[in-house]
Write a structure and sequence with these properties.
Blueprint lengths: L17 E9 L5 E8 L2 E8 L11 E2 L2 E2 L2 E2 L2 H14 L1 H10 L4 E5 L4 H15 L5 E5 L6 E8 L3 E8 H4 L2 H12 L13
Parallel strand pairs: 7-8
Antiparallel strand pairs: 1-2, 2-3, 3-6, 4-5, 8-9, 9-10
Helix pairs in contact: 1-2, 3-5
Length: 191
């Protein structure tokens, strides 16, 4: 009985450089697949040919392990355009992955805290096309952070008190809430 080919969501090498976030398109056995992930911590679009039952590894491969080919930046848009045609439900995720977050509003009164908290929020999000609103109500010592994105993604949290209002705590909570589900270090907890 022949072995089954390795499906794209199980292709995670080389582990030191590559971190798979999501498989965006998979035509199946012996066909092409497209994914987004991080190469040396930076967003990357990747492609590969799936294997077959007779040649389970597919291509590319390195030292007997299945790997992804990183699409050069100058070809990324062409691949994303075709992905929009073939799998429109995945196109927004793919495009969002390569855009940095934008802060639309930040009403924190103290300029030092305003910048520090904003930087913590953006660092927690990473490279992801989300919009951010940060509020400090005039008569209340709390920060309210609202993050929105594609696919009706919306997360809001109130941070109150000296422990919750530290940049480290906010960065960690924002990262947990906005990480892609495939990111093993930070499961998505946003509803």
């Amino acid at each position: 009985m022949p072995n089954e080919y390795i499906i794209p969501s199980e292709v995670v090498s080389p582990k030191r450089q590559w971190s798979l976030v999501a498989v965006l398109y998979d035509r199946g056995e012996g066909q092409g697949a497209v994914a987004v992930g991080r190469w040396d911590g930076l967003p990357a679009l990747a492609m590969r040919w799936n294997g077959t039952d007779d040649n389970t590894i597919g291509n590319p491969q390195s030292r007997g392990l299945p790997t992804w080919f990183i699409v050069p930046n100058e070809f990324r848009l062409a691949v994303l355009d075709e992905l929009t045609r073939l799998a429109p439900e995945k196109a927004a995720l793919a495009r969002e992955f390569f855009v940095d977050a934008v802060v639309l509003t930040n009403t924190i009164g103290d300029p030092r805290h305003r910048k520090t908290i904003q930087d913590a929020v953006l660092d927690g999000i990473g490279h992801r096309g989300l919009t951010v609103k940060i509020f400090e109500p005039a008569l209340s010592p709390e920060y309210i952070i609202r993050i929105e994105g594609a696919g009706d993604f919306r997360w809001e949290r109130t941070f109150f008190g000296p422990v919750e209002q530290t940049p480290e705590f906010i960065r960690q909570e924002v990262h947990k809430a906005t990480a892609y589900p495939a990111d093993e270090n930070s499961p998505q907890t946003a509803a």
